[in-house]
Amino acid sequence: MNDAIRPEGDQGHEGTAALRARLRHVRWLGGGSGAGKSTIARRLAARHGLRLYATDDVMPDHARRTAPGDGPSLEAFKAMDMDERWVDRSPETMLETFHWFRGEGFHLIVEDLLRLPPEPGVIVEGFRLLPHLVRPLLAAPGQAVWLLPTPGFRRAAFDARGSTWDIARGTRDPERALRNLLERDRLFTERLRERTRDLRLPAIEVDTTMTEDDLAGRVAAAFGL
Prior knowledge:
Layout (H helix, E strand, L loop, with lengths): L11 H11 L3 E6 L5 H12 L2 E4 L4 H7 L6 H8 L2 H5 L4 H7 L8 H10 L6 E4 L5 H4 L9 E6 L1 H11 L12 H25 L4 E4 L5 H12 L2
Helix pairs in contact: 2-11, 6-10
């Protein structure tokens, strides 16, 4: 595997600088689950003539492309049944061991982006855009922003999609599984809040008082669109 496209690795100053230059046309929209990333990214891409790259859509492909040695947490997750994944472990353990939260496969996102032409620009969106992995790739301010949903907003978003129970109903104890999932996602959002603050990266708090128009406007302003 090419270490030149591993921002989390020790690639040296020249490697990082080269990546920044090659990804100048990319805008990164990260955040917690249920924050509205996909909706806002689609809206802005259509309005401004940008290409959309949704990291959720490529997760199955990236799971296949990840060698066992590069994805130990992914391999452990694949070996579990639904109860082991969502019922039998604490939300804290689920947070710490979930492969995408650990940055596994992030280099494949970068590989995909490098294959795209520089025109038009790209909006890449998804929870897999961890602040400490994205920050080294930013050539200029305004290339990245994270959406931080409140628990109420996140639950309302899942309910509106009709996807609230999709994972949980596949377990022996759907109510416990859902509680675990919601708490894990809350902890993940808190981690994003801390990381964006510590790294001085832009973040937007998203609650139930914010309209889609408001959020789209704030993200567009953060991106300088």
